[in-house]
Amino acid sequence: MAETGDASRLPTSLDVLASDVHSRLEFHRYAFMDCVGIKNALHCVIEERENLQQRQNAIDQLVAEKDRLTKKNEELAAELESLKEQLQARESSDQQQGSGFQQSHSGMAHPRSMPKRKRQSGDEDVDEHELMEDLSVIDNPDQGLNTELEATRKEISDIHSKLIEGFTDLSTTGGRNIALKNIGQLDDRPFLAACRKKLPAEEAREKAKEVHRVWQGHIQNPEWNPFKTVTVEGIPKEIIDVDDDKLQGLCAAWGEGVHKAVVSCLVEIQESGRLGDRNIVPEVWNYKCKRKATHSESIEYLFGQVKRLSDAKSRTRSAR
After folding, report:
1. Residues 2, 4, 8, CA angle at the centre, nearest 5°?
2. What is the pLDDT of residues 169-185, one digit of tens each?
């Protein structure tokens, strides 16, 4: 009887053991899955941190470049002021030398054909070619200023290029007032909306792509110039010609939304000064004011991004 009792309890014990083993296996399986999930999450966090670091490095470089260019502009301004003072001093000195020097100057041959003669002045020899070159600078004071102006323009162009690079490295998430905008790129959404009103869904998508492609080509064609000149308070100004045949035909065929999208794109190109070259180019854009962002606005926004990233890094370190 005892053996029979032991035998009857054996299956029950095996069932309990099997259930316990199964429970432990399930526990370890879920634990392993949690471990894999945590590992993947950590990998994503590390990758995102590296991306943030790269963006911050790019912004730091931009800030450093901006500081360098600002210092350079200040130096150029000081040099310009010094140049003006030198020119004024030379003009004043030339006027004080009297009519005798003026007559001598007027009797000289052109510096390119004049033989190289030297006259004694104390212990120094004065080269008349050099003297004439100095006088030509006095006669053309704007020449030096134009050179400095060209250098300043190049510096501003470099700043603009750096800003474009900085905003390119930023996230493309929406909702930002200052961001890159492709000037000359026609918005395709109004075309799709207009086609959906007239065609089935599948046909509408294909037709929208076709019409959008055609009008993108029109916009990028410099020979099409749907503008006219009007005078506003005595100042000539170019505006969209509402009587342009193509624009009127577009509005009649596809409605006001598509017409407005094309006109807006043309105005952006005009305000960017790119009517002669209508290739699509990125531009830092103030979406709130619907215009190009100024350099001050762009740099201020980037500074804000630097601060935001720094605060995020500080919070991450604190959380650890």
Report:
1. 115
2. 765 545 578 888 889 99
For the chain, the structural domain boundaries read: 15-95+127-175+295-320, 185-279
Q: Which residues pair with 286 in a beta bridge?
A: 178, 291
In this predicted model, what pLDDT tens digit does every residue of 31-86 receive, in sequence order?
Answer: 887 777 787 777 777 877 777 777 777 777 777 777 776 776 677 667 767 766 77
DSSP string, the chain: -HHHHHHHHHHHHHHHHHHHHHHHHHHHHHHHHHHHHHHHHHHHHHHHHHHHHHHHHHHHHHHHHHHHHHHHHHHHHHHHHHHHHHHHHHHHHHHHTHHHHHHHHHTSPPTTTS---EEEETTEEEEHHHHHHHHHHHH-THHHHHHHHHHHHHHHHHHHHHHHHHHHHS---S--SEEEEEETPPPSHHHHHHHHTTS-HHHHHHHHHHHHHHHHHHHT-TT---EEEEEETTEEEEEE-TT-HHHHHHHHHH-HHHHHHHHHHHHHHHHTT-SS----EEEEEETTTTEEPPHHHHHHHHHHHHHHHHHHHHHHHHH-
Whether the CA torsion 52, 54, 58, 60 is positive or negative: it is: positive
pTM of the model: 0.50
